[in-house]
Amino acid sequence: MAKGADIELVAVTKRYGAVTAVDGIALRIPAGTYCCLLGPSGCGKTSTLRMIAGHETVTEGDILLGAENITDLPPARRGTAMMFQSYALFPHLSCTDNVAFSLKMRGVPKAERRARAAEMLARVEMTAYADRLPAQLSGGQQQRVALARALITDPSVLLLDEPLSALDPFLRVRMREELKALQTRLGISFVHVTHSQDEAMALADLVVVMNHGRIEQAAPPREVFNHPASAFVARFIGGHNVIALAGGLPIPAPPGGARHVAVRADRMMLARPGAAELPLSGTVRSVEYLGATVAVGLAVEGLEPLSAVLPEAAFFADPVHPGEAVSLGWKPEDMHAIA
Amino acid sequence: MKGRVAALALASPLALILLAFLLVPIGTIVVVSFFDYDSVRMFPAFVWTNYEELLLSPITWKTYLQTLWFAAVTWAICLAIGFTVAYFLAFHVHSALMQTVLFLICTIPFWTSNVIRMISWIPFLGRNGILNSALLSMGAIDRPLEFLLFSDFAVVLAYVHLYALFMVVPIFNSMVRIDRSLVEAARDAGASEWQVLRNVIIPLARPGIAIGSILVVAVVMGDFVTVRLMSGGQSASVGLMMVNAMSLLQYPAAAANAVVLLVVVLLMIAAMLRVVDIRKEL
Fold it and tell me: Where does this one sit in the cell (chain B) (predicted)?
């Protein structure tokens, strides 16, 4: 396998006519990193990936891979390989021929390219299906063939465009594990575009949260979850209550004059009115039993809807019901100021 | 049982139409091809003489070869033009509106009858026609080009003009269904434009190519008007043979020829379908 190399985006901008899809982003992805580009649709994550792949021209800025500026190189000469959304396997070619495609394009003799494709298929455990057409494979099998096809070029970076979105939920979790295991084994960087925060949290060494063509936060998943850099990040990754500090709330203001605070839903404290010294009072909107935890939806006058996630046992020790009044609060150290 | 009756009832209109307008006429032609005839009428009979006379005549073989030659040349040119136009429309015109507009422009010739379209070539290509006069006055030639009209060239030109669109439509239809990410995946794997065309687009456009080929070959094999008008009587076709036989009231002879032509065309189509599976396109 090729040695890993750092990817560096320097003030990369992509404009489509008057629309700015990616707005001067700077990002460094160290070699051997599993990086997830996370964001809602239209946030510029796919454009960013396609620019790294060379399927989209860069309007301004540079993309470096290792020591080389690859901004204007054609896709196949960058040392990257792309796995497309819904895989884009050639429907008229067998698995072997799909995997061997790039070798054929380079003029590798038939016997050699078939042998190398067979080796690659063995690596993704698809040897038994070598002669099948893509239409005869399940979604997970197609993904493995697509991976083999991308990896046969020995890329130093693998780019994955929503690789799990075509799969059903069970398979999605399994293929997610396979992707992570593969990345660990190969030791190259994976750059994975997704709009699912679960997927990003589960896979990534580096989560890059994007919105409106800009990077909101680029950090390891634990840091993103515990210290979201903005209200957008806190809302998008979920599991947080974002509370606007608009006058008169009986909660202590954090230092630094922040306008929002974020509190993890699982750090919310809930009690019967008057039973504990909690500063806010509200009403239970909904109760969702989630197995290990119970999510309680709360309405507090003057605030957007909040939620509290309680351990199952703690909730059922004194269950609340929709419509009941509760008091709520959190420890000061669980409150996190955001811009 | 009720579902079966309903299914049969739903299928019956088409079945009746096919029976009345396809199977019965073909059956009639097959029956008549065995009839005997003299110079004024035909008699019900079962004789092989119509087929004998047809198949043992060198003129028949020559005419079939001539027709096959027209079909082959027309097919090759229509394929080249049709593929190129369809490729341009499908891959180089990016707005759907522009695709529709250009597509409609391709169909403009079909807004007039094909006889008029053919006849309009005559003043253009004739000895004193527009093309010859223009070339003469430009000094490009010093006497009129004779091969332009009433020649095999004119016949093939008219065929291509008439039927190139039959090739464009199905190939375009196949091409617009090709997922654009396949082209990107091929480029990602290092394919040049030419390699993308050969390894991805042509294989995936094959059903459209097959359907267009069947349409073009079938109409050219059965044509007689174009050959009569554009060759000025100097070339023959199988269709023209049949028309001539009918004008002499030799209906059984024409019927026998029709049966032979039908078999030949069906064999050609069967051969094409062996190469390409068009089922997924229908």
Answer: Cell membrane
